[in-house]
Amino acid sequence: MGKVALGVALGVAVTTCAVAAVVVGRRVRSRRKWKRVVGVLKELEESCETTVGRLRQVVDAMAVEMHAGLASEGGSKLKMLLTFVDNLPSGSEKGTYYALDLGGTNFRVLRVELGGQRSSVLDQDVERQPIPQQLMSGRSEDLLDFIASSLQQFDENANDFEKSSIRKELGFTFSFPVKQTSVSSGILIKWTKGFAIKDMVGEEVAGALQQALDRKGLNMRVAVLVNDTVGTLALGHYHDADTVAAVIIGTGTNACYWERTDAIIKCQGLLTTSGGMVVNMEWGNFWSSHLPRTSYDIELDAESPNSNDQGFEKMISGMYLGEIVRRVILKMSQESDIFGPVSSSLSMPFSLRTPLMAMMHEDDSPELTEVARILKNVLEIPDVPLKARKLVVKVCDVVTRRAARLAAAGIVGILKKIGRDGSSGITGGRSRSDIKMRRTVVAVEGSLYTQYTMFREYLHEALHEILGEDIAQHVILKVTEDGSGIGAALLAASYSSKSVDNVQLL
What we know:
alpha/beta; 6-stranded mixed sheet; 5-stranded mixed sheet; 15 strands; EC 2.7.1.-; transferase; kinase; nucleotide-binding
């Protein structure tokens, strides 16, 4: 009996040891998988590192590329395009002006009444119209006649004063690639955003619109042709005379600024009455070896239709941040089963949009319920444990922080180029605090900056780190809403009394 009991005891002990070994084995494997996932995050953090020293290298590179782009055509990744806008709104503009904003599958018409004092918009009317699909790939005449008809109908709603025989002035915001030839003319280089009207490529854009307005009998003149960044600068300057640059950080990104004409070396014969001109940087195409590029950025760029272009934009704009995060989560899923089997949605490029990424990043609930909901409903990853959800939030944080800090470095790069970063004139051991800094305002527009709190806070933090507190207190970022509409109308007002352009090429 004793032998039987001993045998049973030994059997139980063996079984217990076997079960314990299985449990321990699972824990070891689980820890290894978790370690691999954490390793992916650690590698991402190291690749995205943006120390102040590195950001200052980006600042210097931006300023150098700006100089190169102003020196010669094709001298830099930055195109540094002349806009021929040599006068910004002064505040004395008075009267009623119009704007047409065409930049996608919708267009807007605006009527703005100005009061003759700075920052005095007395009234404004806005009407949005969708563009019928067939007009996006038909004849240019059909599209422009449709737009002119909408302007005509919009104008018929105006009061008797606005129906007077005085010719109305129109600012035309056209957010497609254009080679500007004067403040009111430019040649379409190519269509984007779903448009494919062949007979308009290579043609003068504002002139074609003017012909459509004339066909409809509209007593209206296209006074200026601008892009949305230039409109943002105009509106910013109208509200605050210290505004010297404008940055858009939304789905895409771009910047423009006020430059001295004698610094635009590639056009030595350039003369303006103001001595300056707005330069459209097209800064989304900026590139430098100092930018902290990851394997995810390299793969995203290689698979994009515009590979080797828009490198800066692909690291900082809303079009791409969610996609970078998706690629990191996919890599984690391939390294471990912590997220379960790889779903078709997780494997689909651009399935995670940046607004959803921002919602996960800013989820402050104890259980990260919003993160769980988005992972389940958008990426088809259900039942994610809390520690893995925290990992996802951290990924969002790393990608967003890098983007915001690089955007800040870009802004300081502009300030450095025009001597507004506090570094000019420092000699003989003078400290930065000895320099008398001018108040400098940068107009900012775009949903990534205006609606994404963490992005905005990281950008401001980096701005102060790069410049130092003494200098940063003189640099103000101001949100400017609807520069593409109101800004275009303001520029139409600025150029309304001029029978000829001020800008001359000798």
